[in-house]
């Protein structure tokens, strides 16, 4: 796919971190970008910076997603690129003992488990369905009618203790990528997924230096956390390279996470 001003994109979780870096990278090629996020202040600021549009969207809400795509398409036309970066985490063991009193057993909250899956997995699928349905209306002679890129995590393959909900949600994203790509194989819509490792996102930036240094040291090479711009670079290549389809790509500096 040639990236230029004739192409529009929607990025979920686009107000910060990996999503924001991808938005800036796409916009630098002239692509018209719509940002879906809950943080209106950051989203509006970034949209103004890149000449895009912000849509306040909770990916768990069918109504929000429908309204977001309607607003984005009214501003930029039918998107040909969807990048799913919206996601949350809620750490906790499946069942564990209280640190204060080991005789007290604490099961993982089912409400939290469902919330993580609804946001990360169901929310990603909801946006893919809505975006791809719109892409199917495009009458294009190009090889690529559209491109979908979702964000999983290396936790999908080597989840650690306390990551059960997050790992389940990200493994689900990986698992659905191939069948979705096959569903659209005759329609010219490609579907890929990136599995980032440790990245210097706003969540990590709030950690103490000693924690960040330890995380960086755990990466084989290069011994640092990834930068959001490196994620964006891979997303750009997945858009431009038409042979990227149903690809599951780790971006992690050769990191394989230990059990804890």
UniProtKB/TrEMBL annotation:
UniProt xrefs under Pfam families: adh_short (PF00106)
InterPro entries named among the record's database cross-references: NAD(P)-bd_dom_sf, Sc_DH/Rdtase_CS, SDR_fam
Keyword Phosphoprotein appears in the UniProt entry: no
Superkingdom of this protein's organism: Bacteria
SUPFAM superfamilies tied to this protein: NAD(P)-binding Rossmann-fold domains
Any one GO MF annotation of this record: oxidoreductase activity
UniProt KW keywords: Oxidoreductase
Stated family: Belongs to the short-chain dehydrogenases/reductases (SDR) family.
Name this protein carries in UniProt: NAD(P)-dependent dehydrogenase (Short-subunit alcohol dehydrogenase family)
